Amino acid sequence: MLKNITNLLLIISMMCGVLTAQVDRSQPPEAEPAKPLEFGKYKVKTLKNGLTLILVENHKLPRTTAYMVVDRKPVKEGAKAGYVSLAGQMLRQGTQNMPKDSLDKTIDYLGADLSTSSSSAYVSGLSKYNERLIQLLADVALNPAFPKEEFDKLKKQSLSNIESARDNPDQLSARLFNHTLYGGNHPYGELETKETLENINLEDCRNYYQNHWVPNRTYLAIIGDIKKWKTKRWVKKYFGDWEEKEANQPEYNSPKVPSESIVNIINRSSSSQTKLKLGNTIDLKPGEADVLPLRLANQILGVGSMGRLFQNLREDKGFTYGAYSSYDTDELVGEFSAGADVRTEVTDSAVSEFLLEFDSLRTHAVSAEELQGAKNYIAGGFGRSLESPQTLARFALNIERYDLPEDYYESYLERMDKISAESVRKAAAQYIKPGNLTITAVGKGSVIGEKLKTFGEVHYFNFEGDTVEAPNLPVPEGLSAQKVIQSYVKALGGQEKLDAVKDLTMQMNASIEGLPPTMEATSTVKRKRPHYYLNQVEVSGMGTVNKQLYDGEKGVVSGMRGTKTLEGEKLAELKNSARFFIESQYQDLNYEMELTGAEMVEDQKAYAVKVTAPSGLSHTDYYAAESGLKIKEVSSQETPQGNVTSVTFYGDYQEVGGVMFPHEIKVTSPQKVTLKVKEIKVNEGLSEDDFQ
Q1: Phi/psi of residue 500, each to 5°?
Q2: 562 or 351: which carries more pLDDT confidence?
Q3: Long-range contacts of 257-261 (CB under 8 A, 24+ apart)
Q4: In CATH, which superfamily holds the domain spanning 262-386+400-468?
Q5: Which of 39, 305, 379, 629 has minimal CB crowding within 10 Å?
């Protein structure tokens, strides 16, 4: 018996060996064609007031999510750009039945999340509170209170955010690209500014809500551990009295497509790299036939580290840490774009490589390997997304909102699998337009502007979206760095007035990025001749968080991490901080000065002076051509985190004791700090004891 079994095993083993030998392992097995996917069922119900309800049961977790979307067209905000966003935030600031504090406490008690925007509202929590969650969502969406005090807080916060955006390369790039791609007269191209935000009043937010939040243009998707019949009853109970009415649906002309590529630049002289973005508008609506071929084209071009742009600009050329592309479908107007942060000196070369990759994708069919790799990547992500019940709700919402075929997502992978390399090429050729690009760059305009003329007519813009002069402005004949400094000393009040200042105390309120609004920060600076210096920062509830002290010989820095005695270059820097009006002493202290040119600094023509200390450390100061006053300073230093650039803006000069002092100082290093002078005292009789 045992022998028979052994012989049988031997025969099976030999058969397996023969079968294995017949398999050609040098070739990967052919992929089976994609099969239609089967999704869970969802139910759609339209209430009498026109609200579309989408219900998705999923009992894997005891949680429920409800998501409202108001299907409105973009709003042209004009001189009050920003009020639509504020209106969306105001929905979360309390209802007519529940002030904000009570609303916050209720949400915390339920362990829920609730948020709003200008065209949506979201709530999520444990399913045992399902009715309460729906009730809260209805109260927020149907009964907003628009409290004045909360509006004032949000408006102040928006103004603060705008100021922070002024020197943020990412935000500068996004603003410039949208504004120049779509145009200032299109809702997608409007820019929020300090002026437009200041124009907004609470009634603007109320009017927006009344005109656009209507049930007959609203979709409500509820997903999770629910009973459909019970949930439908609750929705009727809390949303059924919402009155139907016609919503304002404006029409807009399509943005003007440039006849040839154009280059738009925001000069940021402190940048060590250029933030590039290239793109064009596209006419491609959600669900149209070309969406899938374009998705594959974009995947091959610029999604992830295997994209052609990444492989070219980073792996091959070393121009950047990463280069990517994207596209947006839209019922009104969509866009294709690509971008990267590149070293300043290779800005023009990087644009050339972008154009080469665009052209290659448009004119040559992609390889079978690239095409299959892109399909596999998308299919993998698509499959993983199905693990979330929110995915089914989003699919159902899209089908209803955009009038897609009922099997649009069930057949998604099957349709993608049939797309050919030629279809991908045609999609790239139709939607990527290298001859009609809007190319935007945020960086050193004086360096990159001339180089980018190769790709189109160059225009310069400021933060508000207005065209400005090129940063390479003419320097008057005979002007030198020393003369610029002399003009600065004269503008401050003259050398005699400066020498008369024997001691100085300056108290400032500090706005520090990341610090909660309820916490106040103050900065106190004291100087006394010849070399006494104190700089102390205090935060309410925390006491002194940073203190720099120079007593004429020793320098000490103390703070939340302890106390450190300074030596070498750091001590020399602190000693220089103790000097009064050090610019007037540059020659005596053997500083080197070089006039490097003239450029625009926040709409002011300024002369740039590079200053190098005997230690070798250097920085660049910018002096307004008209007033002579210093308005900006840029310095860089190596840190364990890499090279860090510090930018300081000086403004609101006022006379104290015969000398002009800046009363507003904005510092980015990289944290943003805004200092506003509360009080300046000159020659008040400070003693050496004040610096011990």
Answers
A1: -75, -15
A2: 351
A3: 257/281, 257/433, 257/436, 258/436, 258/437, 258/438, 258/456, 259/436, 260/435, 260/436, 260/456, 261/434, 261/435, 261/436, 261/437, 261/438, 261/439, 261/455, 261/456
A4: Metalloenzyme, LuxS/M16 peptidase-like (3.30.830.10)
A5: 305
